[in-house]
Amino acid sequence: MIRIPLLALLCIALVDGTDARTVDPVSATYTEWRTITRREGLPSDDIRAMVIRDDAVWVGTDNGLARWDGTSWKAWTASDGLPCASISAIDVDPVTRDVWLGTLGGGLIRLTAGRFDQFHQFNSGLAGDIVFAVAMAGGRIWAATNAGLCSYDAVRDEWNLYAERRADAPETAIVGLFVADGRLFAASWCDVLRELDLESARWTRIAPSRDADAAGKDQQLDRKLSLRAACMDADCLWWADEDRLFRRAKTGRWQSRRIAPFGPDEVTVRCIGVGADVSIWLGTDDGLRILKSPADDTWIAVRRASSPPHTRIDAIREGRVHSAHKVADMLPDNRIACIAFDQTGVWIGTRAGLVRGSSRKNSRLRTIAHVPSMGIGPNRQSDAPGAAASATAEAIRPTVAAPAVGVFAPVTRTLALPGAPSSTARSRDVAELDAVRRGVDVANARGGYRGTTAFQFVTGRQGFDRYAWGTPEDDLAYFADREDVCGLVAALRPDSRIASAVLARTRIPVVNASAATPSPDEIASGWIFRCRVSDPRVHEQLIDCLIDELAARRLAVLRTPGRLTRARLEWQIAQARRRGLAPVTVIDLVPETADWGNVLHELSTARADGVLTSCDMSTSARIVRQLRAAGIDAVFVGSDEIVCDEFAWQVGREPGTVLAIQPCHRQYTQSPAPLHGNGRLHDVWESPSSSAKPDDALSYDAGLHLLEAVQKAGRDRTAVRNVLHEMSAARLSVLRDGKWAEMSPPVTMRKSPKEGG
Predict the structure, then answer these.
(1) With 0-12 CB in 10 A as exposed, 13-18 as middle and 19+ as buried, what is 661?
(2) What pLDDT does residue 209 have?
(3) Which of 309, 242, 323 minimizes the C-alpha distance to 282?
(4) CA distance 247 to 282
(5) DSSP per position, 379-433
(6) pLDDT at residue number 362
(7) For 24-39, how does the pLDDT look when each residue is reduced to its tens digit (9 = 90+)?
(8) Which pLDDT belongs to residue 152?
């Protein structure tokens, strides 16, 4: 237990004249902090949902349900009859005291009189089995699913459906529900808020005005708004965007304030809570962000640091850290899933346990008792001496997961939606199975997982076994709950909003093999990445660097027959045209039969100062030598395969300036082992005899990208996600004077594209 006396906080040395009252409202308000885990009676340390009703704290985890009644914990898992243990949402009926649970893949569950009843899309009117949120309102239980918003009248056994998923309309993912003042609020992922007046049954769309008053020095909004989380207190509505916090007063006036970042990346808000002192608490993937009061511009960033383990608390004002200090482990993990307040303190759900903050005089958690239910019957204490301790120890013993990667979704998936031209339609989110499997074969032939075991290749359950159909996200719930995969390869389209929202909840790292520009939904998920050489944004930044840093103005294109190389060149050409620089010449080049004299004459006549191509390493080296021999000093822009010492040796001592994207997975594409042409994309997919499509190469590349991340990070999904974040950053290399060097600084890929960009 951590006790931080207020007097000690007031004695902390302040920087830049920061007032003592702004240093740490967290520890000043709550002087006792404790982390509750499986050792105290939770079914799992991974907290997914939480609600406080009638002085009872209900907690949903990835392995069951728990309740704190003020004196002890009681848990329910699969051994107690819980149909689906992956709990994503909770609410309690104030009249019947029934507990309603939303799950990831198991539909809606009701706990009544010690019995569990399950509602899913095949035995009820529930639209989808992935439930983002539940709420009791107007005598009905409301469930936000991956196929629409449903409401259920348990007395009449009547279901209604709103905002249903249709094949002929953009996807809407309602991921949050809350009730206030006789109104139901439905929060849509990366979209707007919808308000339902329960008396008139009238829906209203709510979105901050573009001319909302900006606090401090912030200017008016210049991009599309995208909702991340929302809540309501007694006085106003709170709305969190990707980097701003909005407040709507009862008068209807909107105000906004920028959420203070901590580090180079934007924060990803997951939940909002309003404290008794009107402080605003934001739970993010990078710890807590706390706004002391709506009238103040001081943010408190609370983050866990690992070396050595401690919690760092920083006061941030106008983007600058004004004070900082360290305390013992107040937060066990930076990934915050839920926040709730009661009369005596705050509860914070993280991926590594439930955190309780309270004042010393009001704390009810000095001693924790629990009723064990894991492996010894339905919530009954065993009579055998030491049985409870041994059962708890067995439950928290770590298990070793197989190093498996999966593919979402299988090509056999069918999807039936209103508005579809036929009763079934192939899922749009399909990665090429054979291409990913081939990448796994390459990795296993090179030693597998750290030279100890082979990688496993896992596919989904291909719809419900009995019915052979369902929504595409059923596979994601299956992977999250049944298959312990380290990551997935997918081909998510820009309009795959629901899949992006599901991935944000399941927290499975995904490498996207799509050739489309990433959407704000994909970026907001925080768990979807691209191989940088297959990311259109990185190719756009490559052209920006060529124009802005290397001053190229007359661009020539050498286009080879390869399918993937042409796709990448099209991304670069499109960006050059957006910058107002259309190519001065485009030459179709077949290296084996090319008339180099004619090619060089065209480049010289066009006075090109930048040459774009995407050939393999040997052909690229030959082109550079030909250019320099002809006295053409244009900047050569090549594929990622040329970023190696062998290319620098082949082009000689005076290659001029050569620019390329740094390769992502060197272990498999540049290994000396002679397998499938060294595993290079050009050798595997771009040969004249190959019948492969560009999608095959993108999926193959994405698979190798994920496998190398698993090699570096191990089996833990969060560690894999962190490595993918680093590997996917835009990094460019330039060859000058025979040596490769990184273009500094690297460009982050986490910011959303501006509206219209």
Answers:
(1) buried
(2) 65
(3) 242
(4) 14
(5) S---SSTTHHHHHHHHHTS--PPP-EEEESS-TT-EE--TT-SSS-EE-S----H
(6) 46
(7) 545 556 778 899 999 9
(8) 95
3-state secondary structure of 515: coil
Confidence of residue 394 (pLDDT cuts 50, 70, 90): very low
- Residues 280-334: pLDDT tens digits? 899 988 889 998 877 777 888 898 887 788 888 888 877 677 777 777 778 899 8
d(CA 512, CA 430): 10
Q: Are 105 and 130 in contact (CB under 8 A)?
A: yes
Specify the DSSP element, H or E, that contains 47: strand 47-53
Helix (H, G, I), strand (E, B) or coil at 624: helix
Q: What's the rounded mean pLDDT across residues 517-533? A: 83
Burial of 691 (0-12, 13-18, 19+ CB in 10 A): exposed
What confidence score (pLDDT) does residue 265 get?
Answer: 57
Lowest-confidence range among 53-67, 344-358, 381-395?
A: 381-395
Lowest-confidence pick of 126-135, 166-175, 541-550, 593-602: 166-175
CA–CA dist 273, 180 (Å, integer): 14
Cβ neighbours of residue 182 closer than 8 Å, sequence gap 6 or more: 197, 198, 199
Inter-residue contact 149 to 161 (CB < 8 Å): yes
pLDDT at site 153: 94
For the CA atoms of 508, 512, 518, 524, the dihedral, rounded to the nearest 10 degrees, stands at 0
CA dihedral 561, 567, 569, 570 (to 10 degrees): 120
| pLDDT, mean over the chain | 76
3-state SS assignment for residue 666: helix
Q: How far apart are CA 123 and CA 83, in angstroms?
A: 14
d(CA 270, CA 267): 9
**Non-local CB neighbours of 299 within 8 Å, separated by 6+ positions:** 259, 260, 289, 290, 291, 292, 315, 316, 317
For tokens 């309603």, the residue is: 100
Structure tokens at 54: 């009638």
Decide which of 3.40.309.10, 3.40.1160.10, 2.40.10.340, 3.40.50.2300 is the CATH code for 532-663+728-757: 3.40.50.2300
Are the CB atoms for 151 and 160 separated by under 8 Å? yes
> What average pLDDT score do residues 509-515 get?
88
Beta-carbon contacts of residue 691 (< 8 Å; ≥ 6 apart): none
Does CATH place domain 402-531+667-715 in 3.40.50.2300? yes
The phi and psi torsions of 728 (rounded to 5 degrees) equal -85, -5
CA distance 189 to 202: 21
Phi, psi of 236 (to 5 degrees): -160, 170
Structure token digits, residue 206: 């709510």
- pLDDT score for 618: 86
Measured from the Cβ of residue 161, the count of other Cβ atoms closer than 10 Å reads: 15
The residue ranking higher by pLDDT, 42 or 15, is 42
Closest CA to 404 of 339, 488, 482, 297: 488
CB 99 within 8 A of CB 111: yes
- 466 CB-side CA count, 13 A: 1
Residues of CATH 3.40.50.2300 domain(s) within the chain?
402-531+667-715, 532-663+728-757
Single out the residue of 677, 665, 727 nearest to residue 701, CA to CA: 665
The conformation of residue 123, written as its DSSP 8-state character, comes to T
**CB-based burial label for 69 (10 Å; 0-12, 13-18, 19+):** exposed
CB atoms within 10 A of CB 227: 24
Q: Is 505 helix (H, G, I), strand (E, B) or coil?
A: helix
The two tokens of residue 143 are 């469930």
Tell me the torsion sign for CA atoms 342, 344, 350, 352: negative
Which residue type does 725 have?
A: H
The pTM for the full model equals 0.79
